[in-house]
Amino acid sequence: MKLFKSFVFSIRNFLILVRVWFFNFFGAKISYKARISLSANLDKTNLRGVVIKDGSYVAFDAVILTHDFTRGFHAETQILENCFIGARSIVLPGLKVGPGSIVAAGAVVTKDVPPSVIVAGNPARIIRENILTGQYGKLLDHAKSQY
């Protein structure tokens, strides 16, 4: 059973890497050290505008947009280092999610997100500042070291 689980996990990782390669082939700038869920939605209308840096994770059903047809607007949407984009959240076109930030599940990001914060809600608002994240936006427990 353990061998089967590791086999399935390695196939999944291979599919994720192929998907990243595919997006990069068509103009996106996605680090191979980033992870994107197989069900995450990147804007295929303007793939050149998708930028995802090292150590970031885009969870299932999250949407990263890079265009707005109603305004005729195409822009670069950036997810910087060690960010976590939560499930079913939406990042609107032309925005930047600062390094080490977390976008909560279901959030709608309408403005740039500063570094090292957690944002949640619709529209997304800062709910916590000065956080510390590791790879894939994992929140590090630094509260223990303060005591």
TrEMBL record:
InterPro entries: Hexapep, Hexapep_transf_CS, Trans_hexapeptide_repeat, Trimer_LpxA-like_sf. It comes from the Bacteria. The keyword Repeat applies. Keywords: Acyltransferase, Repeat, Transferase. Pfam families: Hexapep. GO terms for molecular function: acyltransferase activity. Belongs to the transferase hexapeptide repeat family. This is Acyltransferase.
